[in-house]
Amino acid sequence: MNYGTGFIFRNYLIEFSEIAKQYEALKLKLAQEFQYDRVGYRVAKTDFVVKITEEAKNYYLSK
């Protein structure tokens, strides 16, 4: 994720609290599952981040 998409992702989470709650729940679950595996944790949340980032790009481009 580059800085631009990172900001898009962050802003989208700020704007849509329900998605932010989903991300929080995922991170908490994965933190337990990958307690000693930071790479596994990062990889496991990648699909969610990519999906939401694409949603965010489409949302902001349509404004």
UniProtKB/TrEMBL annotation:
<protein>
    <submittedName>
        <fullName>GrpB family protein</fullName>
    </submittedName>
</protein>
<dbReference type="InterPro" id="IPR007344">
    <property type="entry name" value="GrpB/CoaE"/>
</dbReference>
<dbReference type="InterPro" id="IPR043519">
    <property type="entry name" value="NT_sf"/>
</dbReference>
<dbReference type="Pfam" id="PF04229">
    <property type="entry name" value="GrpB"/>
</dbReference>
